[in-house]
């Protein structure tokens, strides 16, 4: 018998939970005894940013039938719902996000219990502040924010997108006003909000925040460059439509034209554009990888906003709630840019908005950043990723988004993916573009867990 090996999973949101589940199950299947350390500062492992909400109006934006934590068992989440208080649950339902958080936490708990005797699991409620790779035989030294250290043979960095960036449009004055929410997902971030509100951004985050802040007597204003809300999912979705034209190898201009033809064809045939967009989903990572750096930058600048509103849609029930808010003018949407802020009455804020109609001054109590922008890892505030980049154990991914990997294994400054350090989800954004939703994360989690177990078996220990 070789020495017992240690795997550290850093961050236990959805991605970390899925990796841990797969490691537990794979270790039992392979008969490989190991120590698994889960490091997560949050109170409950498995919920992360998206599924920690307790607001029943916050729904999944993906149907339940596509949210199983195992791609090969698509019915797993729906079956779980049926056994846990939603007996009528169906694959097409857009379920409350808090239920999904409970499903992940429960699935993780059951996997840990099922692996008892093979996998010894420890949960540490702290952050990882650094990770030093010490060489092939020696593994990694993981530094904890509470001053402790861990020696690991393999490390999986499931940290999500990290802290939200302070946006460039937020002036010094606004930041100092005490009336500005940088990250609406930070626990309790919206608790102090009073009076009318300006949301900057109009994507899925803005929709959730608007629903959360909706009440009689309050106007929620939202402003974004395009002034577009996410489109709604169909009440009765149709299956994804495969694109008839070959898309592989096309530069961005050719891709735009081919996608437009595909959408028009599907719209003519089915009366709905959604199956056309859904049919592109399995191809996105490959198409993105084949684009030149210049084309990727042009896509992000010119096309991504339009892509996002069609691709990341609202559940029908959410769309109805948003329509109600707009009809009663409790939600008012504008296309425009924020030009500046200055102090208003009662400690509030006046925002200057440049819109097609000219400059408009809007007096609100609070301003909430809903742009959901995360800085490139190299500029981010997370000491873990900054340290890995500084030590050359990681390098930025395309366009500086996330980090470069080889199938999830970190590439170092030497160009090689030789360290037993893996990541998944948002840190692979530059490489894959679409990588932050469960249908992508669950596939990556299964692959990372197998790669980790293969690695532990490589030296025959
Ligand atoms: C509001 C919202 C709604 C969403 N809705 C859906 C949906 O309906 N369907 C869907 O498929 N996707 C949805 N998504 C996408 C979502 O990003 C993924 O589904 C998933 O939650 C991502 O999980 P993650 O574990 O990668 O990241 P996170 O949820 O961000 O989890 C990362 C975890 O890592 C921890 N962490 C970070 N750094 C460290 C560190 N240094 N040390 C220790 N721990 C650390 C954090 O505390 C956190 O718990 C939504 C996203 C958001 C923001």
UniProtKB/TrEMBL annotation:
Q: Which residues form the FAD-dependent urate hydroxylase HpyO/Asp monooxygenase CreE-like FAD/NAD(P)-binding domain?
A: 8-161
Alphabetized SUPFAM superfamilies for the sequence: FAD/NAD(P)-binding domain
InterPro entries in the record: FAD/NAD-bd_sf, HpyO/CreE_NAD-binding, L-asp_N-monooxygenase_NS-form
Name assigned to this protein: FAD-dependent urate hydroxylase HpyO/Asp monooxygenase CreE-like FAD/NAD(P)-binding domain-containing protein
Q: Which organism is it from?
A: Streptomyces termitum
Q: What is the lineage of its organism?
A: Bacteria, Bacillati, Actinomycetota, Actinomycetes, Kitasatosporales
